[in-house]
Amino acid sequence: MIKLTIHSLYMDFTFLTKDGFYVHIEFQTTDKKDIDLRRFHAYDAVYSNQTEKNVITYVIYSGGITDVKSELNCGLYTYRIQPIYLKNKNADEVFQKLMQKRNKGEEFTENDCVSLSLSPLMSGNMSPKEMFKKAINLTKPSNELSAEKTRAMLYALADKFLDKSELDEIREVMRMTRLGQMLMDDGMEIKEIENIKKLMKNTNWTIEQTMDMLEIPEEKRDKYRKTIDQNN
Q1: CA pair distance 107, 132, nearest whole angstrom
Q2: What is the rounded CA–CA span in Å between residue 3 and residue 5?
Q3: Of 5, 92, 106, 130, which sits with the fewest C-beta atoms within 10 Å of its C-beta?
Q4: 101 neighbors 108 (Cβ within 8 angstroms)
């Protein structure tokens, strides 16, 4: 008798360091103690096996969490995470400081960008959605790499912590940024691909006939061919 179980493990963020090990970052709004620790341990074990590199996990806690269990007894060894608490960090203070710097024409430092990236998970007087909006607006109108990275991080976190209607508002705030334009372009391409597949199904046309009919630009056609072929 053979029993096959497939597990999909989704890590929040991983970064390869210059020293050759991976930093794994998880964001948590709850504390499930051993359940969370066993899940993080599974992530790290699988990822370390795949990459043949060591993995260190940092867990960033929001939602008022200030004290968690950070070690798990695994028999002959102990698994550990490094918890980081954002409850004692104040987003309002971060926004005020960066507003003053922007009004003076000063550039944001890398530390400023890190604080801004994590600000919606800190304590403060605004709702998480409004914090995301405020943080994104503070990165405008800069198109420097640090600003782009900050916006990308904020969008990734918004996608994790906000519901669909709130995320739609965040996309609207990001509309005039380069990342926002990329998201819009991706959305348009998804719609075009769905239109091609629907028309092919209804008419029995080939993909080439369908793209001709829909007047799909030549620069997009090769990508669409591969996508539709992969999805049958």
Answers
A1: 20
A2: 7
A3: 5
A4: yes
Residues 6+ apart with CB under 8 A from 223: 189
- Separation CA 178–CA 175 (nearest Å): 8
Phi, psi of 89 (to 5 degrees): -95, 140
For residue range 22-79, what is the model confidence (pLDDT) as tens digits? 999 999 888 999 999 999 999 999 999 999 999 999 999 987 888 999 999 999 999 9
0.85 surpassed by pTM: no
141 preceded by a cis bond (ω within 30 of 0): yes
CA 36 to chain centre: 20
DSSP strand pairing (13-16 vs 22-28): antiparallel
The Cα 17–Cα 77 span in angstroms is: 25
